[in-house]
Amino acid sequence: MDDRDIDDIDVVEVTVDGRPIRAKAGQSLGAALVTNGITAWRATRVGGRPRGLFCGIGVCFDCLITVDDERGQRACCVQVADGMRVETGLEP
């Protein structure tokens, strides 16, 4: 991400699979991931197809992710917070 894309005043830092990303305060985790070029963060049980943000409103459950050791969080419904630790279901 280009640093000019975000005002430094409204920035939070989130760690995704051990890698820091920057996000806009108030943004959903799903939006922050996509903004940082992360479009898939889990795989289907059958076939291993990539999944990420789909509906963006919490209905489809395609965006499930682990946030601060709490599994099964919908990335589209979780607001980013400074220091948040996120683990995807994909190998780095």
UniProtKB/TrEMBL annotation:
It comes from the Bacteria. The keyword Oxidoreductase applies. InterPro entries: 2Fe-2S-bd_N (IPR042204), 2Fe-2S_ferredoxin-like_sf (IPR036010). Keywords: Oxidoreductase. One of its GO terms (molecular function) is oxidoreductase activity. Gene3D superfamilies: 2Fe-2S iron-sulphur cluster binding domain, sarcosine oxidase, alpha subunit, N-terminal domain. This is 2Fe-2S ferredoxin-type domain-containing protein. It comes from Saccharomonospora xinjiangensis XJ-54.
